Amino acid sequence: MTRSTALLTDHYELTMLQAALASGAAHRRCIFELFARRLPEGRRYGVVAGTGRALEGLAAFRFDDDALGVLDGVVDDATLAWLADYRFAGDVWGYGEGEVYFPDSPVLVVEGTFAEAVLLETFLLSVFNHDSAVASAASRMTLVAEGRPCIEMGSRRTHEEAAVAAARAAYLAGFATSSNLAARQRYGVPSAGTSAHAFTLVHDSEDDAFRAQVASLGTGTTLLVDTYDVAEAVRRGIEIAGTGLGAVRLDSGDLGVLARDVRRELDALGAHDTRIVVTSDLDEYAIAALAAAPVDGYGVGTRLVTGSGHPTCGFVYKLVAREDDDGRLVPVAKRSPQKGSVGGRKWAARRVVGGRAVAEVVSHADTFAEDERPLLRPLVRAGEIVGTEPLDVARERHAAAVRELPVAARSMARGEPVIPTEHRTARGSVAP
Amino acid sequence: MTRSTALLTDHYELTMLQAALASGAAHRRCIFELFARRLPEGRRYGVVAGTGRALEGLAAFRFDDDALGVLDGVVDDATLAWLADYRFAGDVWGYGEGEVYFPDSPVLVVEGTFAEAVLLETFLLSVFNHDSAVASAASRMTLVAEGRPCIEMGSRRTHEEAAVAAARAAYLAGFATSSNLAARQRYGVPSAGTSAHAFTLVHDSEDDAFRAQVASLGTGTTLLVDTYDVAEAVRRGIEIAGTGLGAVRLDSGDLGVLARDVRRELDALGAHDTRIVVTSDLDEYAIAALAAAPVDGYGVGTRLVTGSGHPTCGFVYKLVAREDDDGRLVPVAKRSPQKGSVGGRKWAARRVVGGRAVAEVVSHADTFAEDERPLLRPLVRAGEIVGTEPLDVARERHAAAVRELPVAARSMARGEPVIPTEHRTARGSVAP
């Protein structure tokens, strides 16, 4: 059974609930939107990730006795009683997982009473802010790797549970494999790995270590060749494993220079099919710089799991409309020059002309033109989770969404979002 | 029951285990060290955090049937059989949680067979790299806040489980409270919070919202006063709650200017004890900039949970010594100009002269002078966890360790580590 997720939230969600239950506002129908006011500086697009995990977590968002015990003293008895029966019974729509997003894209739309929808704020933001940050970084890396496989190996550089989510996010954004075994367990992410320097060092010699590895893991394994002398290690590796050795791994030094030297040496030894994998402090820029080097795979760690400089997306979860005393839904928004938001329920579509995305359309009406592909899909209907899908569907959706973007999306240079966000009022909406 | 932590690890730890079991090297006694080669650029000291969580996780690091099922196909049957009985039976020493650290400080020392110690690598690194990054950022923030309470509220900006660990790390580094309810549940971290803009917006007017909040949460509550007009909100807040209103919160705008205006207004209204809490995109620099403003508390979110620009510590876990065929422990190290490490078992102490830390001593011998305070304490003895302690002990240890640092530790300017790390060979060691 999944552990309750209900306390993975902020104290103030509960005190607001208490005060709103007392005032009656708790029962007003509300619409909350999860969106980003901007992309991380210089980024051309963002990637939506976390949907699958959010839906899993939503199913476990119930206040069990443990949770109620913790809240005794945080909120009053009336609120505790209400929480004991809590189960989200509203509706959620969202961008398909793996889809790209832009400033003001309504990535998630939650409709329910104030009480039931406000409680989800922190948890939903945590999931989307983290997973989308990693997926957004991962997507740039896989784009610039141009088909060479990227291997996620950042688990040790981030919280142990964030590591699992990062492996999942990287996979949906095009990474080939992950080092993380829990991601294999929970999400079926293909895992891979062979050995580290400690394995060489625990043996009496590099030769002993290579022999032990090849004997146990087969000639298709990847030998780590930079513990002592790279050229010597490559020579000995091929002597021990034969020319069928799967790959060698370089984890330090000038990777471009080393990769060329090693390729030459491997070829001279007849090991034409032995691949070269590099793994030292890579990010999208380092990957781009290695485009001309004879590299067959990139292992990416720290920079991937920390979102390559942007470890969080800046998604916010804002009340954009609520019921009034007459039962009508009225738009609401905070008055602020920096932190304002556009009130009212929104729908979104991507305008695609000749197979190429040209605009993100955020509209107050749910009608779109023929060349506008609607982006919101139902995730939860009256509390029932309907949006669950296999991770590979998100992976394919992501690949398709990125293919559709203008070529500038592939640029590593800082710039504006690769397509503009068009805001359309209900009156100005285009009929289908 | 705690969920198994055994798959929160990298695939290659398991393949190394398989190959080492086959070669026999798996049974060699080994010493692994967890340390950082350097501090994040410009930082004066780091803070050790994660010890308590690591020990919790270690107790749950067992391969249950689920885990073994996942590994079927990753490793061979002999390895699966070995894993089924796995339980770490070695020794672990570590810096006390909350202690400060410097480049090459042996923050954790793990002694056991290669097999049992290598398996812990990824999990231990995840915990310490994350928690220490947050604690290191938090410590700078609490130092510069100079006694004004700091409130951790970054849960929504990081992975939902990382959020809980971040709240714990922030608390041990001196934060007063956290918004995170799971941290309250699991670690007894004091939680706090009152309301957000959505609470104001769901009511028909700010007046209605304030009335509802004060009626339900009491006059000691904190009113959020920047949804519409700050001056008006402050006036109405005091009218509604009376001069006993606990606090007002500012979450946008020029906080220094606003805080002065609000203080003047509160005083003019007679609300001399009503505090002012600010919460918009703060970090240690923003806190420092507000030192002269009439602010009574800082809420810190994004920048705290992302380590204020350094979301991971760069801790590595290196094999530094292993048994040879004659049963002697021999030092080992990778040969690398950038990624080298110093072989051999190390001990550490802080030299403190006249109550002031002057050096971090990393020695190959475990004897220290009288003015050198040993830093390693036993955490695990022959597999038994002996280092568990209440979180408040770590919190007090942190406060004491920081008090002892040179005043330059309080500088927000980038610089070198505030004390040097002295390496001492066994021969050059000082007798006590």
Automatic annotation (TrEMBL), chains A, B:
GO terms for molecular function: glycosyltransferase activity. Its EC number is 6.3.4.21. Belongs to the NAPRTase family. It is an enzyme of class 6 (ligase). Catalyzes the first step in the biosynthesis of NAD from nicotinic acid, the ATP-dependent synthesis of beta-nicotinate D-ribonucleotide from nicotinate and 5-phospho-D-ribose 1-phosphate. Residues 7-128 form the Nicotinate phosphoribosyltransferase N-terminal domain. It catalyses: 5-phospho-alpha-D-ribose 1-diphosphate + nicotinate + ATP + H2O = nicotinate beta-D-ribonucleotide + ADP + phosphate + diphosphate. Keywords: Glycosyltransferase, Ligase, Phosphoprotein, Pyridine nucleotide biosynthesis, Transferase. This is Nicotinate phosphoribosyltransferase. Transiently phosphorylated on a His residue during the reaction cycle. Phosphorylation strongly increases the affinity for substrates and increases the rate of nicotinate D-ribonucleotide production. Dephosphorylation regenerates the low-affinity form of the enzyme, leading to product release. InterPro entries: Aldolase_TIM, NAPRTase_N, Nic_PRibTrfase-Fam, Nic_PRibTrfase_pncB, Nicotinate_pribotase-like_C. Pathway: Cofactor biosynthesis; NAD(+) biosynthesis; nicotinate D-ribonucleotide from nicotinate: step 1/1.
